[in-house]
Structure formats: C-alpha cells, structure tokens
Amino acid sequence: MENPEKTRTPKVLVIAEAANPEWVSVPLVGWSLAKALGGIAQTHIVTQIRNRDAFLRAGLEEGTDFTAIDSEAFARPLWKIGNVLKMGEGKGWTMLQAVSAMSYPYFERLIWKQFGPALRAGDYDLVHRVTPLSPTVSSPLAAKCANLGIPFILGPLNGGVPWPKGFDAERRREREWLSYVRGVYRFLPGRTVTTKNTAAILVGSRHTESEIPDAYHDKCIYIPENAIDPARFSRRAEHKEGPPLRACFIGRMVPYKGPDMLLTAAMPLLRGGQMTLDMIGDGPMLEALKAQAVAEGTETAIRFHGWVAHDAVQDVVAGCNLLSFPSIREFGGGVVLEAMALGIAPLIVDYAGPGELVTTETGYKVPLGARGDIIAGFREALESISADPQGLAETGQAARDRVQSLFTWQQKAKQVSEVYKWVLGLRSDRPSFF
Fold it and tell me: CA-CA-CA-CA torsion for 98, 259, 333, 282, nearest 10 degrees?
C-alpha cells in the first residue's frame, strides 16, 4: 500500500508581499506563481494590504484564500522616501528597492504575530516566500520556521545582474548610483542567517545562483522566475509570407532597454522598405525616438504605440514575426517569453535573463559587447533574417513549444511541487528541470 504521506497535498503558507494581478513586473510574477501554487498544494497567500482589493476582484476570499497584512505604518513613508531618492520616474530601481526593503522585516514580524500560533500548532507543512524576488532582502521567518522544524523555501530569487562594461553612461542616466555598492549585502548578518535556515532556494538566474555561497549550493534549484499565462497570450503569430520583415520592440523607452540602438541598427532596412517596426512602450526616450525616426525619414515604417495594456499587447505583437530586443540588463526577460508564447522568434543580446531563456533553436542571439558592437550585431542579424526569412516560422514554433513545455505558470507550479516533495522528504534527489 502506498504511503499516504506521499500522496497528501501539502499545506503551504505562501508569502507574497508583492502580488497583484492588475500590475506588471514583480507584482504580476508574485501573483501568478502564488495563484498557480494553489493547483498543487493547499495554499494560503499572505500579501500586503495594497493588493487586497485586486485579490478580491480576482475572486479570492479573504480569510480563506488569503490574508492582507497592513504594514503601511513603515511601508508608506519609506516608499515615499525611495521615490524621492530615485530622482526620476522609472529610474533608480536599486535605490527604490533598497529603501523599500527596510520595511520588509516589519511585514514578516506582523506575519509571525498573526500566523505564529498556527505554525507552532503544525497547521502548515512548509512556508514558501515567493516575493520579494531580490536576494538582498533577508527573511527573519526562516530561522523561526527552522526552529519549529518547518521547511522554509525562498524564491525565485533574481536581480542584481551587473551592468556590462561600456554602459556607464546608461547606468548614470538610470540613476543607478547604488548599484556600484550593491554587493555589500552579501556581508549583512541577516543574509547568512536566512540562507542557513532555508530548506531550498529557487534561483531565477544563473547569476543569482553564483551569488549564493558555495556552502549552500546544494540547496539551490534553478527555475527562471518568469512564465506566461496562456489565457493572456492565446493568439498565434500570423507569419505572413513575403517582405517586409515585421519586427517589434516591447519595453520601457529607457537607455538600458536599447530602443535607440535598435532604431540605429534597423535604419537601413527601414529606409529601404525591407522592414517595419512596432515600438510598444512609453518612457522618457519616446519623444527623442520619434524625432530620430522623422530625421531619418522612416516615420512611416515605425509605429509608436506608447503604453499598451498588458492584456492587449498580444493584439499588436501577433501581427509581427520577430521580437527585436537589445536590452543589456534584464533580470527575467518576461517579454521574451510572451513573444515566444505567440510563436514569435526573439532577437536578443546574449546576456542575463533573455540569454538563458533563448536557445539557438528558438531564437537569435547577438553577443554582448560595447554599444557599437551590439548595434552592428543587430544590424547584421536583421539584414540576414530579412534576406532569408524562411526559418522565422519554424523558429517561432520551436519557441512556442519551449514555452508550453517549461514556461507556463502551471508548469512552473509543477516544478515547485517537486521541490516541496524534496524538502518534505518525499523524494530523495534534488529536482532539476533545465
């Protein structure tokens, strides 16, 4: 007879301080994974009060499905300070995260105050902190859970990808002053205590894995942070035969995303009518990019869509057959997966998140280099693809297949379920998926 412990669905307290189905970036990752885990475990989600109304609108029941913790006494003033220090909309991400992280221990203190009795009583088999994603944010709960004999799981952790050499100007324009000293977090005492008392660490990138001390690498399982919701990305790329090459860019119009590098690389093809370009996103560079298109006489070949609602992005992208994305500092690369889910091949810089998501069978990679090298690499790749576009549909299909097999939230939850079995002693070998 099979051991009932091996078939029992575990009870999991899921901590997702940032989790919101109506937002993007980290909150959407937090929501998507936390919600998906409900399909493989008996979960109760703990989130911050700012997400409460969105949870209710999504159909979750407060008290049964989730609890919203009001940590605004610390979070709100520190968030305001962070917004001042970052010196510009969409800038100073490292500074904003550092200041916001100062309020996080208070959030976990409130969780312990409310859920400590249930944890002591054995009401939960394990605790999984999904967000914050940053590996710099320690968790006071890890040691408390370890003392109770309850496995504590961190992740996916991701972030802190180094700025490439030769892009200091972009770094300064992004107000990323704190990134120069980010590495000091490794010496903070809370980090060691957290890592020591964690049963498993889900690392969202190979870079993050490299930042975990060697002594704890046997706890690490590599699972990229991003995935897609098939309901949001349900369309298929049209892949119309014949020229022109129909490329798109998705992202904020900021220096490290490289929209200006893309325009410079693509100008000969755009002027010659061999390529069109849909630019999706808003940001401080948008007006300058529009002016560049006019100055080069390519305004009719480029469509600037500005900000587009997340659930409407696929309506634009499905009419394209190539994602051109020269970002030089992506932690996760969610837009790359979203394009691949539609059957669109990505052209990316082989660095950080996108470089790990895209294989030679599912897309095109340009080596990381100086600004001029990337522009030249993208120009060469675009000209080669435009001259012989026959492989685009096949590469796009391979990209879609890869997403369906590894990068949906349902698949991600199945991967995490194997980690749960491992930390609960229901499987002996450490899971590996990539």
Answer: 70
Contacts of 83 (CB under 8 A, 6+ apart): 96
- CB–CB of 326/354 below 8 Å? no
Domains, the chain, ordered by start = 4-227+408-423 (3.40.50.2000), 245-406 (3.40.50.2000)
Which residue do the tokens 């802190």 mark?
160
Return the sign of the alpha-carbon dihedral for residues 271, 275, 278, 283.
negative
Work out whether the CA dihedral 78, 83, 86, 91 comes out positive or negative: positive
Do 138 and 191 form a contact (C-beta atoms < 8 A)? yes
371-416 tens-digit pLDDT: 999 999 999 999 999 999 989 999 999 999 999 999 999 999 999 9
**Residues 110-126: tens digit of each pLDDT:** 999 999 999 999 999 99
Contact 355, 331 (CB under 8 A): no
Q: What is the DSSP string of 75-118?
A: HHHHHHHHHHHTTSTT--HHHHHHHHHTTHHHHHHHHHHHHHHH
Name the pTM for this structure. 0.89
